[in-house]
Amino acid sequence: MSQSGLSSQDFAIMAAAALVKDGVEENSLSFDPEKFVLEIKDGRGVPVNTIRLHNFYARYTATSDSEVHQRIFKQMVDLSHGLQTALSWEEAAPKLRPIARQKWWLRDDNCPAFDLGEHLRVAIGYDFDDHIAYVTNEDLTGWGVSFDDAYDTAFNNLVEITEFVFDTYASEEGSPDCCHFFSAEDSYGASRIVFTKGVESMPVLGDLLVAVPSKDHILVTGSECSYGLEETLAAIKELQEQPGALVPTLMRLEDGFFYPYELPKDHALYADFQRLKMDYVDRLYHSQKEELKSQFDGLTGNVTYLVHKVNYDKDVPVSVTFVAPEFIPCSLPKTDYVIFGTQEGPLAIATWDRVEMILEEKLLPIDSYPVRYEINEFPSEAILELLGFVNFGE
After folding, report:
1. 283: nearest Cα among 260, 251, 249
2. Which residues of 231-241 are buried (b: 16+ CB within 10 A; e: fewer)?
3. Which of 68, 168, 367, 377 lies at a C-alpha separation of 20 to 30 Å from 290?
4. Distance of alpha carbon 321 from alpha carbon 294, whole angstroms
5. How many CB atoms neighbour CB 46 within 10 A?
6. How many CB atoms lie within 10 A of CB 156?
7. What is the secondary structure of 27-42 as a DSSP string?
8. What is the DSSP code (8-state) at residue 379?
């Protein structure tokens, strides 16, 4: 019998109760419904541990077995204790694996990691039999091991347990117009994207493009693959609707490095891929805005965190943000277009490139993900005239 009637909010309450029973102070717990995580904070309100509830909730509601439920809560309690660096390096080393996840979830400075492309990060995971813990700086210090050495060990461990074989779907037998699929249901499927030499060996037409739309999958196709791009698009759409979804955007892989990639604007699938990207980035900015408001309201004066919006009125969606005098000083997301105006209407509408060129040093980048910029002065009439008006999509 399924427990599907249990709401995510009620599950979070049950998880928090299990942590409190284990000794976690109730006032140190914070629930973020948008991210569906429980955070444990120190006395200054700084998060020291984050427990992501998605997978636990999915497993809990999939069964009515009380013993399974107890194990699930025990796993969350174990996560609240971290890795327990009483483990020696010799004990820990065989259980380490590289783990690729959304950059949004891996922004904790205490969890060493490196960027992979625009929206992914790679950390080191410790593989328990039924869950994964992220290796922290304290863990590395306790072991007396550098991040690079620990990562090399994790990488080699994953190599040893991997048969890196792709399934290929082609327009016709033997055609390089294809899409290559790799999948593994051990929570490290997408993490094998770090095997760049293996990925680069896949034959395609044009530039080699990679997507990791879920934690279990890697998709590879080429910029000149008509059939391959159609299959990739369909797979991304399907996988984005399933648990464990990661990033729906394409990356170009060249000489071991990943670069952001967009199809040419006249490509038949440009609008479809752009819509996936816009939806994803819009979700990121929404979560970021809510987080910034909760963290800094009342601490940083009257800074306004402007909204990232997607305009779907045209065939190809575009992102916009609106700047008004009363919003200054403000923090604005990077969008395709920026509208400067008042309640009476727009005074200027410019592309992002033009805003950067005209405002120059008045547009101040902020160290954040996704990227934001600060404006402390509303443009003068002369600057507004230079910014001009442009129709969306031009």
Report:
1. 249
2. bbbebbeebbe
3. 377
4. 21
5. 9
6. 12
7. GGEEEETTTTEEEEE-
8. P
**Which of the 8 DSSP states describes residue 107?**
-
Count CB-CB contacts under 10 A for residue 73.
18
Tokens of 34: 């948008």
Give the CA radius of gyration of the chain: 23
Tokens, residue 47: 């998060």
pTM: 0.79
Q: Which residue has the tokens 């109730």?
A: 26
**Six token digits for residue 387:** 């910014």
What's 182's DSSP letter?
Answer: E
Domain spans, the chain = 1-81, 82-161, 167-186+196-261, 284-387
Q: What is the mean pLDDT of each run of 10 residues along the chain (394 residues)?
A: 69 88 79 82 66 81 84 78 68 95 83 94 86 84 95 98 95 92 93 97 97 96 98 96 89 96 96 95 90 63 88 89 95 96 94 94 91 95 94 65
Smallest CA-to-CA distance from 51 within 61, 36, 62 is with: 36
- Which amino acid makes up residue 378? F
The predicted pLDDT at position 279 comes to 94
Q: Look at residue 42 in the predicted model and tell me its pLDDT.
A: 60
Helix axes 66-80, 54-61, angle to 10 degrees: 170
The SS3 of residue 325 is helix
